[in-house]
Each structure stands twice: as C-alpha cells, then as structure tokens.
Amino acid sequence: MEYVILAVVIAVIAVGAVAGLVVTGRRRKELPPKPAEPATLAPPTPREPQVGDEAAPPREAPVQTVEEVQLPVAAPEIEAPEPTAGRLVRLRSRLSRSQNALGKGLLTLLSRDRLDEDTWEEIEETLLTADIGVAPTQELVDRLRTRVKVLGTRTPAELRTLLAEELVALIGTEADRSLHTAKHEDGRPAVVLVVGVNGVGKTTTSGKLGRVLVADGRKVVLGAADTFRAAAADQLQTWGERVGARTVRGPEGGDPASVAFDAVKEGIAEGADTVLIDTAGRLHTKTGLMDELGKVKRVVEKHGPVDEVLLVLDATTGQNGLVQARVFAEVVDITGIVLTKLDGTAKGGIVVQVQRELGVPVKLIGLGEGADDLAPFEPAAFVDALIGD
User: Compositional bias (Pro residues) at which positions (predicted)?
Assistant: First the structure.
C-alpha cells in the first residue's frame, strides 16, 4: 500500500514538472528578440504653438537698406505707333467703303450719253446729299459743265481725272495742314488744345493724337483737363502709358485751367516737344462752360502762345456739327479740324463745308476704332478713295 501511494506522488510531481517546462517554453517563444543595439529615437515633431505657451526668444532678422530692397517693377509695355506718313493711303479701304457711293454716283451720271438739265440736277442733288454745301456744290457743277463741253469726248478715264481734279480744287491744296507741334527755339514745348462737345470721341482722339505725335518723334506730355469725368482722365492716362507719354491730371471736379497750366509747366520741366491738353466736352448751349474754355486758353497762354486749337467734330452729325463749329470759333481761335467717324458716313462733303464755314483746314480724320486709325488729311488721297478705281 505504501508503494502505491509513493508511485502516485512521483507521477504527480513528474506531470507538474513537464507542464512547467511547456509553459516556460511558450513564454520564451512569445518574447521578442532582444535588439543587438539600442535604437536611436527620432526627435519629436514640433507642435503648433498654443495659447498660453511662452514666447520663444526673439531672433534677429537681417536688415536691408532702401537701396538693397528689390521692388517689383510693373512698367507697361511701350508700343510703337505706326508712322503717320502714308497712313491715309493704308486706311483707304475704310474710307472708300462709306464714301465710294458719292464718287461712283457722280461718275455714273457724268458718263451718260446725254447730259441734259435733269442729269445736272441729279448731280447737284448727289453733292448736296453728301453735305458739300450749296455754294460749293454750285461752284463744282458750273466747273464740271464747262470742262465737259471743252473735253468733248468723255471716256471713263478722262471723266475720272476731270472729277478728281475738280474735287481736289474744291477741297483746297493751299491751306497749311501740318500740325505745329515742334519745340520752340527757346526750349518751350508746343501747346495743343483739343476741344469739342460731348460724344464726338474727343478724349479718344486726344489719345490717338498723342500716338501720332510720338510716331512723328515728339516727346509728349498729356494734360487731362477734363476734370468733370474721372473716366476721361483714366482713359487719357492709359493712352499715354501705352506710348510712354506722361499724363498730368488733377482731382475730380478740380479747376481745368489749373490742370492745363500744370501740364504745360511739367512739359517745360521735362523738356517735352509737345503738350497735348484734352479739355472737357463743352455743350455749345452752355454759355458758362464755353466761358470756362476761354479761361483755360488764357491761363495756358501765361506760359506762351497756344500753337494749335483742334476742334473735334463727328462727321456723322452733318449740319449740327457746323453749328458747334461756329460757336467754338467764337470762343477760341480754331486752327484746325479733326473729323472723326468719317468711315461711318457717306457725307464726306462735310470736309468741304466745314472748311468754308470756319476758314480753317481739316488736319486729321478718324477712320475707325483702332489705335492708329487717326490719319493726317491729304486731299488727293481722300479724293482718290472717294472716286475709287
């Protein structure tokens, strides 16, 4: 019996020993292998500063002088306007589209086999419809009658030459159509005033005229004396920046005469060749505004005489444009006419009539909306486009 109890005890002890070995082995397998060398820990990621954190000690930033600081330069690209020489010839197609009806209509009537009184009346009506005016029309018809009788034969080429010669003579070739924009001998710049009523494209014409002057090699200063419309001053400044011309402007609603005076003063200081002053659009029915235009001219003349006073007229307004011209001529001495929108009307005869009314020549004509669509007026080139091929 004692042997049996001893055997049981030994068996229990043996089973416990085996179980302990198994558990120990399992635990050893679950433990990770011991690293050969301790791992290097990465520095902690800096967190965003929070409210209540202590400020870090100030760091000294490098100090730059005014000369060392690089400022962004955003100068506008300077454009090179088209040369004015031959510009009217280049724009001939725009002129002929609207004016061709007049020239071709006259040639058709003159080419009839029999030029009776009814035909001559039709010729007169055609000329009057084109706004040439009563007196110039009668002069032209009388000369055409005489020359056709003397000519005898009337081939198309002969008629075209005859009509061209008479139209050029009617427009006139003796007048001085040059722009007086050269610097004076004493170094004072030439001064050009641009005047006209609202709606004729006066500020746009002033900007285009600035391009004409730059294309002719002039150094130009622009004066934005239309202080009643901030948009007009902005527009003129944009035109100037495109060709590198400086614009002098004043506060909105300021004194136009003061701006004009400052523009000439600036032109003298900069050694400019020409100062171009864009005045406000004056309604010819407003006596006070017209008086103000006279004041602008008088104030500018404190620097010296005004070289050009250019009246801008809309060619499409016809007789109303002539009324405007007469009133402006009473206030300031007009030296030349700028006819705009001549490509949009068949009334090219206004060139003749406005010259007769004012006794001053048409010096520039506008033939489109492009930047270089303002051209010096050349009678022969104008008539050539008028008649066509």
Answer: 33-47
